Amino acid sequence: MPNLLRHHRLKLTALLLAANLGLLLHLAAGDLKAMAEWVWLDLIGEGGSALLALAWLGLILKSRPAGRVTNLLAIGLGCVFFSWWVDLLDEFIQIPDAITWDHWLESAPMPLGLLLLTYGLYHWHHEQLAISAQMEKRERLFREHRLFDKLTPLGGADYLRRQLELSLAQSSREQQPLSLVVIDIDDFDSINQRYGHAEGDRVLQAVTQQMLLNLRHQDLLCRLAGDRFVVLLSNTGETLARTLATELAQSIAHLAHKSRQHGERLFLSATTATVMALQESPENLLQRLNLALAKAKQPLALSA
Amino acid sequence: MTLPCHWYECDTRCIAVHQQPASLIELCLSRGIDSHRLLRGTSLFLEDVAQATTQISPSQFLVLIDNAQRLLAADDSSFLFGQRLLPGHHGAASQALALANNLQQALELLGELRALLSPLLSPRLLLDEQHAYLYWLDSCGLGEQRRFLLEANMTAVVAMSRRLGGEHLPWQFHFRQAAPRQIEQYWVHLGEDLHFNRPYDLLRLPRECLTRPWPQTVQSTAQVACQQARQQLQALGVQASLLDTLQRWLLRHVRQAPNLEHAAAALAMSPATLKRKLHKHGTSYQEQHDQIRLLVALYLYQLKGYSNDEVASHLRFHDATNFRRSFKRWTGLAPSALRQLLGN
């Protein structure tokens, strides 16, 4: 994403002005303390807190597109920062006892900021649920962005292995069958050769979308490696898994992908294989799946 | 007995940037990697990449590979790079490969033109009655990038044979390393027949696959391309790396049990210089010598069916006990145990 901070220029300017105003007010009303009067522990505590609040604000603004939830979070964190900032100024500048506005300046923004932040987080939660719904069939139970392949984006082999461990345990606990389908695009290398690797990447993305549309909501699609995908089917026996595999292969064959450069139709096909999980390790199951695929591909290799 | 000084070292600028390095750079840019971060430490600029005259050294290439691997942060980087390598964009050399009559000719060309086509890892083709073996030796002191380059080069050969021959061949893969975490990448990009913890890095193929004619060959054009490729190699001025040259010399003289002084004399340099140069490549004479003796021992065992005593005397060991001890140091296994391991 291009620099999101640019969209928040107004908010950042306002915060800078407010912090400056606070500083000027303090300087006008009070006297600078001598260095001997500084309480270092307070300085580090309050200064550190203010800096952290600023860092959170930066991270939030940098990672989120502009919008209502972002505004709530930003204003909330801005208030929190301001409150700590004024607190920090106290340590350097002695305000005469007669003046009371500095207490207001220090204490009022904090609860307001925390309220806004809480309200923002609550809405963030709802937003996250909406986004998670889009991740259906791509992730389950746990999220780890480092295990996601950047191209498609689907979970990679490591993500699949972790999910398999969970699902294998669950299926033996609940006495339910668990099946895996592997889908391998035929002759993918020649697509790369003829249309370029960038087109190959687009084919993988298109095929991913196509397969996601054909899956049930409880299924999980992962990209094993290259042009090979695996679907994890909980509570599914081998017969149903075969049907689903055939449907996936047919849907890929019917996907009328057009190349970007000349808009030419690419004819795709895929080989699939299915295995049902026994009492075994994820490693072993994947190995078996792979051999099943190799067998399914065999006649093709001979006829080529 | 001296050899002509036609080798390159890890700091010789002999790799054309617009060839293999450019494929890697292109792969990274297509994945949205920042070019400044990618080229950091390589003393290269993006403008140089399009220049036909820019050459980099193996060390610079290794820095580039290291950066690429770190920034791509994906398990399939080496394989995607490998798919782009052969026949590649090396002008006449690539054309000669693409027009080869069959796989054997292509692999022989790959060996002959290795300074152009595989400058960091040198391939060597070996045949017996049943099988063809293509084994790979580190020719530039690859260090941590060894695995990346092995994966890339093996993928390149397999992908080339599939593209040009139009069929999937029953390749068998042997690696010195232990089975990697991302084994799925090996399945998809190489094949199922994988063997790890072996004493060598090699590809094996039934011999009859080598001579099946490739469809697209044009005899006369192929010959011209071969000539041009040889001229291209001559223009490069080097034919192999220093390590490669030493390894091949050791292979030829292994029966004389040569020492550092002999090798230095053959390479027309002082023993101290050779020692320093080997150190620069992160290796030593002992290591190179052991590696070659191990390969020869395995060759004699597996292909010639020699006994321990025969191998020991071939390699000029005093006795079989002495040889067994050395063998165990090279491989971690006694000869009998290793033969059993490789027997299946």
From TrEMBL, chain A:
<keyword id="KW-0812">Transmembrane</keyword>
<dbReference type="InterPro" id="IPR000160">
    <property type="entry name" value="GGDEF_dom"/>
</dbReference>
<dbReference type="GO" id="GO:0005886">
    <property type="term" value="C:plasma membrane"/>
</dbReference>
<dbReference type="GO" id="GO:0043709">
    <property type="term" value="P:cell adhesion involved in single-species biofilm formation"/>
</dbReference>
<feature type="transmembrane region" description="Helical">
    <location>
        <begin position="40"/>
        <end position="61"/>
    </location>
</feature>
<dbReference type="Pfam" id="PF00990">
    <property type="entry name" value="GGDEF"/>
</dbReference>
<dbReference type="InterPro" id="IPR043128">
    <property type="entry name" value="Rev_trsase/Diguanyl_cyclase"/>
</dbReference>
<feature type="transmembrane region" description="Helical">
    <location>
        <begin position="68"/>
        <end position="86"/>
    </location>
</feature>
<keyword id="KW-0472">Membrane</keyword>
<dbReference type="GO" id="GO:1902201">
    <property type="term" value="P:negative regulation of bacterial-type flagellum-dependent cell motility"/>
</dbReference>
<dbReference type="InterPro" id="IPR050469">
    <property type="entry name" value="Diguanylate_Cyclase"/>
</dbReference>
<dbReference type="InterPro" id="IPR029787">
    <property type="entry name" value="Nucleotide_cyclase"/>
</dbReference>
<dbReference type="GO" id="GO:0052621">
    <property type="term" value="F:diguanylate cyclase activity"/>
</dbReference>
<keyword id="KW-1133">Transmembrane helix</keyword>
<feature type="domain" description="GGDEF">
    <location>
        <begin position="176"/>
        <end position="304"/>
    </location>
</feature>
<protein>
    <recommendedName>
        <fullName>diguanylate cyclase</fullName>
        <ecNumber>2.7.7.65</ecNumber>
    </recommendedName>
</protein>
UniProtKB/TrEMBL annotation, chain B:
<keyword id="KW-0805">Transcription regulation</keyword>
<dbReference type="InterPro" id="IPR018060">
    <property type="entry name" value="HTH_AraC"/>
</dbReference>
<dbReference type="Pfam" id="PF12625">
    <property type="entry name" value="Arabinose_bd"/>
</dbReference>
<protein>
    <submittedName>
        <fullName>AraC-like DNA-binding protein</fullName>
    </submittedName>
</protein>
<dbReference type="GO" id="GO:0003700">
    <property type="term" value="F:DNA-binding transcription factor activity"/>
</dbReference>
<dbReference type="GO" id="GO:0005829">
    <property type="term" value="C:cytosol"/>
</dbReference>
<keyword id="KW-0804">Transcription</keyword>
<dbReference type="GO" id="GO:0000976">
    <property type="term" value="F:transcription cis-regulatory region binding"/>
</dbReference>
<dbReference type="InterPro" id="IPR032687">
    <property type="entry name" value="AraC-type_N"/>
</dbReference>
<feature type="domain" description="HTH araC/xylS-type">
    <location>
        <begin position="244"/>
        <end position="341"/>
    </location>
</feature>
<keyword id="KW-0238">DNA-binding</keyword>
<dbReference type="InterPro" id="IPR009057">
    <property type="entry name" value="Homeodomain-like_sf"/>
</dbReference>
<dbReference type="Pfam" id="PF12833">
    <property type="entry name" value="HTH_18"/>
</dbReference>
